[in-house]
Design a protein that fits this description.
By secondary structure, the protein is α+β, with helices and mostly antiparallel strands. It has helices at about 5-20, 40-45, 90-95, 155-165, 170-175, 185-195, 210-230, and strands at about 25-30, 50-60, 60-65, 70-75, 80-85, 110-115, 120-125, 130-135, 260-265, 270. It binds a DNA duplex through α6.
Length: about 280
DNA sequence: CTCAGTGTTCAGTG
DNA sequence: TCACTGAACACTGA
């Protein structure tokens, strides 16, 4: 699930559920991988009794601003999400399948209950997600090493071109590099390049001024559009590559009938349209 | 049964 | 320092 729009949806969900509340109960799974550099017990102690003042996001990372440090820092990996007890509308947006009746859900790593009865869990089936504690999540690593957040702090055109100009390697690798733009993942990178009409294998230095401007504009556009619909894929515009990219094989076509090809770029499966991306 | 996958990090190489 | 590759992590679903 998790690229910037999914993380932003999780942020809103957490803030709506926990904001201004004090945490009255914490249950942590015994998981020594997802809890990274800190025991589940220590996380439990750090959160128990604290007030959640706000929930913040940078790129794909989320953290709680509490009335006392350290603060918890979350990353969803490839399969994680924040969930709250059955709320049909929200479930639709966060999980494509499984109406799921069980609570807490399977693969729950942390389960929070706040005063007033609100509840939130983080699930993580594949265990590539992480829960950490940080004194200053925004500035400590790993968040401190991230580049700009395209939703919160998109650089002006000129600065964007400057940052981009320092990069080597192919343009898709640059988009995926979290030290450049925080929050871009595989499908967003492909979608942006598709809409900008740029071949993902092109080197960064081969792009002209107009292409760099287009790249910036589409990056902002794709992310804002996905955030606007709470990362609900069914509501992404019909023209997006996203809906067709998994057609796999030679049958995959865009809404205009153009052939979609699958290749490996920057070590990731890449869907692109050779007739449109030059 | 096998393999790829909406991610990150690290080791090794050039 | 930078960039690239491959592997590791863990598990599900095609």
């Amino acid at each position: 699930m998790p690229e910037l729009p999914e993380a932003e949806f999780g942020r809103k969900l957490a803030e709506r559920t926990l904001g201004g509340r004090s945490i009255v109960r914490v249950r942590c799974a015994r998981d020594t991988i997802v809890f990274d550099g800190v025991s589940p017990t220590r996380v439990q102690r750090a959160l128990q009794g604290r007030v959640v003042l706000a929930v913040h996001r940078w790129g794909k990372y989320l953290w709680f601003q509490l009335d006392q440090r350290p603060w918890p820092l979350f990353h969803f990996g490839m399969t994680g999400s924040f969930r709250v007890p059955h709320q049909a509308v929200l479930e639709l947006a966060s999980s494509p399948r499984r109406p799921s009746g069980e609570w807490p859900p399977r693969f729950t790593k942390i389960h929070l209950v706040v005063d007033g009865g609100g509840e939130l869990v983080m699930t993580n089936a594949r265990r590539l997600g992480r829960i950490r504690l940080r004194d200053d999540p925004r500035n400590d690593p790993p968040v401190g090493r991230l580049g700009f957040d395209p939703l919160l702090a998109m650089p002006k055109s000129r600065e964007f071109a400057e940052l981009f100009g320092k990069r080597r390697g192919n343009v898709k690798a640059v988009l995926l590099d979290q030290r450049f733009a925080a929050g871009v993942g595989n499908w967003i990178a492909d979608e942006v390049l598709f809409q900008a009409g740029i071949d993902p294998r092109r080197t960064a230095e081969s792009l002209g001024e107009n292409e760099v401007r287009r790249l910036r504009a589409k990056l902002g556009h794709v992310i804002r559009a996905a955030v606007r619909v709470d990362a609900n894929k069914a509501r992404f515009p019909a023209s997006w590559l996203f809906h067709h990219r998994w057609g796999k094989q030679s049958t995959a076509r865009t809404s205009n009938g153009e052939r979609i090809e699958h290749i490996t770029v920057a070590g990731r499966t890449t869907a692109w349209v050779p007739t449109r991306q030059l």
